[in-house]
C-alpha cells in the first residue's frame, strides 16, 4: 500500500472521528450526556436497575394497598400513596431504557392493565377492592424477585440490537450532535441561496407561504383507507369505532372533528397551477368522514365552511398562518362556531356559564419557518380574541362542572395555552355553547397519545356526556404512534 493510500485512509478515519470527538469534548465541557455512553449503560446497567426498580415499586404498592385495606378508606386522599406506587411500577415497566418506551398497546402484562383499570374505579366503587387484592399480591410476587425471563425479553424486544432502540438513538445523535447541527444549518442556507429550497420539512409556495411537508404528503399519497396500498397502516376508522364503543359503555357520546390541513384549503398557494374554482377540497379526509358516518360516528365537516369562508379573505386576514401549519385566530373561531352548531343539534342539557371575548394582537413565529432554520421568514402579527368569563377572568377548563371533554392536538393548544392564552378553539367553543369545557391536549399525538393519557386519567370522564375528538387530517396517516387500540 503506497503512502498516498495510507494518507487518505488516515484522513478518512480522522474525518469520521470528528463528530464523535467533538461531541465528547462538548459533553465533558458542558457536563451533558454523551450518547455512546448511554448505549453502554443500557447494555450493562439499565436492565438490572429496572429489575431493582420493579422490585421496590411492587413492594411499595403491596404495602400501601394493605394499609388502605386495613383502614378501609377509599377516598382520593387515602388512595394517593397507592396511585403513586402504581405509577412508579408502571413507569419502571414501560420505560425500558434511555431510548425505548412501551406504549399502552405493547404492555403484555394484562394484570398490570387490570390493576390500573380497577384503581380508576375504586373511589366510586369500593367493591372492586376484592378484585384488586389478588392482582396486587400477584404483581408483588412477579416483580418482587429477579427474573431471567424478563431480562431476556428486555434484550430481545428493546435492547441495543433492535430497531426500536437504534431509530431513536440515531435521531438523538442527529438532533444533539454539535457538528451535525452546525453543518445542517450551513447546508440548508446554501440550498436556500442556490435553489430557493427551504429544507426537507417544508415546501415553499406562492407569496412565500410555507407548507409542512407531511401536510402535502398526506394529500399526494394513497388514502389511509386504501386496502391495497396502505396495508402497513393502522386503520383509523376501526380504532375510532372501538373508542366510541368504550365511551358508549360509560353513557358518553363521541363527536369527531377532523381539521383540514393548510394545503387542503389553500392549494392554489402551494402551487399556482391548482384550479380551486370548483370549491371541492382535494383530500382523502372526505372518504374518512363518509366511512365514519356509515359506522354511526357523529362527525363535523369543516372543509365546506372553510372553503366558503376563504372567499371573504381580505387584508391578509387568512384562515391559516403564512409560515405555520396552524390556523389563525379567525380559523379557530370559525371551527368553534361550526362545531358548536353540531353540538347544539344534539340537544344536550349542559351547565351554563356565559363568556365574552376581547381583542388583542399576538406575534407568531411560524413552526414550519423554525423547522427550516432559515432566518429569512418574518414573524406574523394576527388579531386574536381572548375569552373571559363574566367576572373578566380569562377562560380556564373546569373538569368538575363541564359535561364535555375535548381531546385534541396543537390546533387546540395554539392561542389557548400559549400567547395570548384563552383565545383558541377550546375557549371559543365554550363561548359559543355558553358552557365550561375540559380538555386533554397532546401536540402531534391526537391519534393515540391523547387516548393513552385519557386511559391513565379516566376519572376526568366522570359527569361527561360528550367527548369531542379533534385531530388534524395528516394524523390519519402520520399520527404519532399510529392508531393503536387503547381501552378505557
Helix percent band = 40-55%
Helical segment count: 21
Structural class: alpha/beta
Shape: globular
Average pLDDT rating:
86
Give the termini separation: 67 Å
Largest sheet: 5 strands, parallel
Low-pLDDT parts are: none
| Radius of gyration, whole Å | 26 Å
Query: How many strand elements?
Result: 11
Strand arrangement within the widest β-sheet reads 4-3-11-9-10
Query: How much beta, percentage-wise?
Result: 5-15%
Can you describe this structure?
There is one protein chain. Helix 5 runs antiparallel to helix 6 and helix 16 crosses helix 19. With 488 residues, the protein is an alpha/beta fold. A hairpin with a 5-residue loop joins strand 1 and strand 2. The protein has a 5-stranded parallel β-sheet with strand order 4-3-11-9-10, sandwiched between helices.
Outline:
This protein is an alpha/beta fold. The protein has helices at residues 3-30, 35-44, 46-71, 76-94, 110-122, 129-143, 148-158, 163-176, 178-195, 213-220, 236-249, 262-265, 267-270, 285-294, 303-310, 329-345, 367-372, 410-413, 425-433, 449-456, 475-478, and strands at 202-204, 210-212, 253-259, 298-300, 355-357, 360-364, 380-384, 387-389, 404-408, 438-441, 466-472. A hairpin with a 5-residue loop joins strand 1 (202-204) and strand 2.
Amino acid at each position: 500500500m503506497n503512502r498516498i493510500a495510507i494518507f487518505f485512509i488516515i484522513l478518512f478515519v480522522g474525518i469520521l472521528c470528528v463528530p464523535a470527538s467533538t461531541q465528547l469534548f462538548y459533553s465533558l465541557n458542558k457536563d451533558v450526556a454523551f450518547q455512546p455512553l448511554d448505549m453502554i449503560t443500557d447494555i450493562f446497567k439499565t436492565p438490572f436497575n429496572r429489575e431493582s426498580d420493579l422490585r421496590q415499586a411492587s413492594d411499595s404498592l403491596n404495602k400501601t394497598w394493605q394499609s388502605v385495606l386495613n383502614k378501609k378508606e377509599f377516598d382520593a386522599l387515602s388512595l394517593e400513596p397507592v396511585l403513586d406506587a402504581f405509577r412508579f411500577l408502571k413507569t419502571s415497566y414501560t420505560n425500558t431504557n434511555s431510548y425505548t418506551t412501551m406504549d399502552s398497546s405493547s404492555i403484555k402484562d394484562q394484570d398490570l392493565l387490570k390493576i390500573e383499570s380497577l384503581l380508576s374505579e375504586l373511589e366510586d366503587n369500593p367493591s372492586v377492592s376484592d378484585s384488586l387484592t389478588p392482582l396486587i399480591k400477584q404483581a408483588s410476587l412477579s416483580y418482587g424477585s429477579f427474573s431471567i425471563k424478563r431480562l431476556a425479553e428486555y434484550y430481545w424486544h428493546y435492547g441495543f440490537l433492535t430497531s426500536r432502540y437504534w431509530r431513536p438513538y440515531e435521531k438523538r445523535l442527529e438532533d444533539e450532535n454539535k457538528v451535525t447541527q452546525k453543518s445542517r444549518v450551513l447546508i440548508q442556507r446554501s440550498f436556500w441561496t442556490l435553489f430557493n429550497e427551504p429544507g426537507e420539512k417544508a415546501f415553499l409556495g406562492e407569496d412565500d407561504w410555507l407548507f409542512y411537508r407531511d401536510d402535502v404528503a398526506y394529500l399526494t399519497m394513497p388514502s389511509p383507507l386504501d386496502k391495497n396500498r396502505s396495508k402497513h397502516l393502522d386503520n383509523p376508522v376501526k380504532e375510532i369505532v372501538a373508542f366510541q364503543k368504550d365511551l358508549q359503555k360509560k353513557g358518553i357520546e363521541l363527536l369527531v372533528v377532523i381539521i383540514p390541513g393548510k394545503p387542503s384549503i389553500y392549494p392554489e398557494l402551494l402551487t399556482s397551477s391548482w384550479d380551486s374554482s370548483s370549491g371541492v377540497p382535494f383530500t382523502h379526509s372526505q372518504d374518512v368522514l363518509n366511512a365514519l358516518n356509515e359506522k354511526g360516528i357523529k362527525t363535523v365537516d369543516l372543509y365546506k365552511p372553510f372553503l366558503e369562508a376563504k372567499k371573504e379573505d381580505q387584508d391578509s386576514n387568512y384562515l391559516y398562518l403564512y409560515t405555520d401549519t396552524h390556523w389563525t385566530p379567525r380559523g379557530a373561531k370559525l371551527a368553534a362556531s361550526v362545531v358548536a352548531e353540531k353540538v347544539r343539534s344534539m340537544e344536550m342539557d349542559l351547565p351554563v356559564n356565559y363568556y365574552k371575548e376581547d381583542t388583542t394582537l399576538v406575534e407568531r413565529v411560524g413552526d414550519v419557518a423554525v423547522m427550516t432554520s432559515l432566518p429569512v421568514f418574518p414573524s406574523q402579527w394576527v388579531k386574536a380574541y381572548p375569552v373571559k368569563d363574566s367576572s373578566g377572568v380569562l377562560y380556564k377548563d373546569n373538569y368538575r362542572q363541564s359535561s364535555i371533554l375535548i381531546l385534541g392536538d396543537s390546533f387546540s393548544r395554539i392561542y389557548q395555552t400559549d400567547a395570548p392564552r384563552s383565545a383558541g378553539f377550546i375557549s371559543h367553543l365554550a363561548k359559543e355553547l355558553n358552557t365550561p369545557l375540559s380538555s386533554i391536549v397532546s401536540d402531534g399525538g391526537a391519534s393515540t397519545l391523547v387516548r393513552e393519557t385519557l386511559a391513565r386519567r379516566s376519572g376526568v370522564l366522570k359527569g361527561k356526556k360528550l367527548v369531542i375528538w379533534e385531530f388534524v387530517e395528516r394524523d390519519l396517516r402520520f399520527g404519532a404512534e399510529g392508531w393503536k387500540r387503547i381501552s378505557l
